[in-house]
Amino acid sequence: MTALANLQSRIPTNQSVSVPVFGLGVWKSKPKECYAAVISALEVGYRHIDTAAIYGNESEVGQAIRDSKIPRSEIFLVTKLWNADQGYDSALKAIDRSLENLNTDYVDMYLIHFPVTEKRNESWKALEEIKKSGKAKSIGVSNFMIPHLEELLKEASIVPAMNQVEYHPFLNNNELFHYCESKGILVEAYSPLAHGKKIDDERVAILAKKYNKTNAQILLRWGLQKGMVLIPKSVKKERIRENADVFDFQINEADMMEIETWDEDYRTCWDPTTVE
């Protein structure tokens, strides 16, 4: 089990940066609500914000960070290279657009959003240059499965710092998790609440009652104790606060092992396993 002190606890990566273990995802957050959500999260104590070029809200994320008056150096900011911009030259241009939208000189991590066939390796070469330039302090990938990672690592000069994938007790890909662990790649869970589609599962409710926590908090705490970084998405201040209230209890080993049995390969987003 991973011992975690608070919302701003960090996990080290293989690229000399450490990632706040808990962040705010802003996928599908409309501009105005995205701005308000980031402000709320930063007020609660979040220091990790995850956006992407395709989300269309990089500008609002950047504005909220500036308006929060929290020093930029204290915030771990992530954005991603979209599929249409993959390739060497286009990726180098894409990071500049993202930095302009975010109104910042650098991001703390830049990710390839999806393993686009025949373009992902060229994109990675560009990300290595982006890291060397200082425009990204670290680089990683998203939605990469083991075959994609194996292919990448054959050519890469830099091992990805992180692999951001859909991960929750109902999509518990231990083979991928342990592979990443063996390569020193941190796993970050997006949609750690399975978009709420399993939040009322009776097994979750039983544990929530046992630990006097909400169903969502049980799912999130499981991910934290497993050793992942989590970026649950919400635009409601009370939910943003509730999601973060997971550092004052620990799920015991027997219950952690019980949750491990809930896997049913339940995807709520992309299925990158079908990508050649």
Topology of this protein?
Layout: E1 10-12, E2 18-20, E3 24-25, H1 31-44, E4 48-50, H2 58-68, E5 76-81, H3 88-102, E6 109-112, H4 120-133, E7 139-142, H5 146-155, E8 162-166, H6 174-182, E9 186-190, H7 202-211, H8 215-226, E10 229-230, H9 237-244, H10 253-260
Parallel strand pairs: 3-4, 4-5, 5-6, 6-7, 7-8, 8-9, 9-10
Antiparallel strand pairs: 1-2
Family: Belongs to the aldo/keto reductase family.
Protein name: 2,5-diketo-D-gluconic acid reductase
Pfam families: Aldo_ket_red (PF00248)
Number of helices: 10
Q: CATH superfamily, called what? A: NADP-dependent oxidoreductase domain
Helix content: 40-55%
Overall mean confidence score, pLDDT: 96
User: Would you tell me which CATH topology applies?
Assistant: TIM Barrel
The biggest sheet, with number of strands, parallel, antiparallel or mixed sense and barrel status, is: 8 strands, parallel
The dominant shape is globular
Tally of individual domains: 1
The count of β-strands is 10
Distance linking N and C termini: 34 Å
Range of strand content: 5-15%
Report low-confidence residues grouped into runs of 5 or more. Answer: none
Radius of gyration: 18 Å
Q: Spell out the helices and strands N to C.
A: EEEHEHEHEHEHEHEHHEHH
Spatial sequence of strands, sheet with the most strands = 3-4-5-6-7-8-9-10
Question: Architecture, according to CATH?
Answer: Alpha-Beta Barrel
Structural class: alpha/beta
